[in-house]
């Protein structure tokens, strides 16, 4: 992969920006459709306290195989591809998203700046 420009691995700033866009969209959807209220106490909210995270996960799982990345990725000029080429399939985005939701694998990178969630799923986030 090239070191810079299109096709290079997306850098941290873009990744964080895309994450913020996606989580903001997920929160808005959770408020509008799932009755999420960030001011509810956890005991009162029940399952709804996790609504934004659930919507975030669904957005990732649906958009990566169909649009080549989440809405945040695409807005910031990135896409998720399979490292060996070809379609990402369904299980790779699921594995990537589950590890992303856990957070720790996503904040540990290798020398190529690929998170463990990308390495485990065989995917790579590149600049479009």
Structural features:
two-stranded antiparallel ribbon; 6 helices; 2 strands; 52% helix; 128 residues; elongated; mainly alpha
**Category from helices, strands and their pairing:** mainly alpha
Give the termini distance in whole angstroms.
Answer: 12 Å
- Which regions are unreliable across 5 or more consecutive residues at pLDDT < 50? none
Measured on Cα atoms, how large is the radius of gyration? 15 Å
Strand content: 5-15%
Tally of separate helices: 6
Q: What's the helix-strand series? A: HHHHEHHE
Can you count the beta strands? 2
Overall mean confidence score, pLDDT: 90
Overall structural domain count? 1
Anisotropy-based shape: elongated
Major beta sheet, strand line-up: 1-2
Main beta-sheet strand count, sense and barrel state: 2 strands, antiparallel
Helix content: 40-55%
Structure description:
Strands 1-2 form a two-stranded antiparallel ribbon. 52% of the residues lie in helices and 8% in strands. With 128 residues, the chain is mainly alpha-helical. The two termini are 12 Å apart. The chain has one domain (12-127). It contains six helices and two strands. The protein is elongated, with a radius of gyration of 15 Å.
């Amino acid at each position: 992969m090239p070191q810079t420009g299109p096709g290079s691995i997306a850098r941290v700033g873009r990744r964080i920006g895309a994450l913020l866009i996606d989580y903001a969209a997920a929160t808005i959807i959770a408020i509008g459709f799932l009755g999420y209220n960030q001011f509810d106490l956890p005991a009162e909210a029940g399952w709804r306290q996790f609504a934004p995270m659930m919507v975030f996960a669904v957005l990732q799982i649906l958009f990566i195989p169909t649009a080549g990345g989440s809405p945040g990725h695409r807005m910031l000029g990135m896409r998720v591809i399979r490292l060996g080429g070809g379609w990402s399939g369904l299980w790779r985005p699921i594995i990537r998203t589950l590890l992303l939701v856990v957070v720790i694998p996503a904040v540990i990178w290798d020398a190529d700046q690929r998170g463990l969630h990308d390495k485990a799923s065989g995917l790579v986030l590149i600049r479009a």
